[in-house]
TrEMBL record:
One Pfam family linked to the record: CMS1
Protein name: CMS1 protein
Domain of life: Eukaryota
SUPFAM superfamilies: P-loop containing nucleoside triphosphate hydrolases (SSF52540)
Organism of derivation: Xiphorhynchus elegans (elegant woodcreeper)
Any single GO CC term annotated in Swiss-Prot or TrEMBL for this entry: 90S preribosome
Length: 204
């Protein structure tokens, strides 16, 4: 059965933290020890309230981050972002950036995808200016972190564009390449930061 056939018949259910936990456990089940998998577990306190599908992106961000104006004002560090938004494509990143208008205020948003934008350009921008929100694909964000172009020490929120479906009705975690890159990014540094309490994860 095609995934789109199944999805057409079922009502969309909003993602919850347990969905991400199960995904990580399944992904690593074959090649990690029980102890290693245990280290990838996140407590419920690591998560922001999930989107119940009634929110626009702006209203969701306002709910999870009521003190945004203060966070934005206090953020002065280059090469870093307060909020990272991870989605499945460049096109979807642009859609999300457009739909944040009511939330973002005076903050600067950086596009973090590979389409038409060289990684060196993004690294230069991060090095020279202060940006508050980055919206992009997991592969490019991971590459920026690996190449030391993006530092996650100031990051407070990481939002996964979890519930949105493309024309084939696939969510970002239904696309093998995006799923793998997202899990790699989480494992590389985000899970550790969540467990230390500095980053909160949101499923939009």
């Amino acid at each position: 059965k095609k995934i789109s056939d199944i999805l057409q018949k079922s009502a969309p259910k909003p993602g919850v933290p347990a969905d991400l936990q199960n995904l990580l456990s399944q992904h690593f089940a074959g090649n990690r020890s029980v102890i290693e998998i245990e280290e990838l577990k996140l407590s419920d306190s690591c998560f922001l309230p999930a989107n119940d599908l009634s929110h626009s992106f702006s209203s969701y961000l306002k709910e999870i981050c009521p003190k945004w104006a203060k966070l934005r004002r206090n953020h002065k560090e280059k090469k870093s972002l307060v909020m990272l938004v991870i989605c499945s494509s460049a096109l979807r990143s642009l859609e999300l950036i457009k739909s944040m208008t009511a939330f973002k205020g005076d903050c600067r948003v950086l596009k973090l995808f590979a389409k038409h934008i060289k990684i060196k350009e993004q690294m230069n921008m991060l090095e020279k200016g202060v940006f508050h929100i980055g919206v992009g694909t997991p592969g490019r964000v991971k590459a920026l972190v690996e190449q030391d172009g993006l530092c996650l020490s100031s990051t407070k929120y990481m939002i996964l564009d979890w519930n949105w479906r493309d024309q084939k009705l696939r969510r970002m975690m239904d696309i093998p390449e995006i799923k793998k890159e997202t899990i790699d990014l989480l494992e590389m540094s985000i899970i550790k930061l969540c467990r230390e309490g500095s980053v909160k994860l949101g499923l939009f």
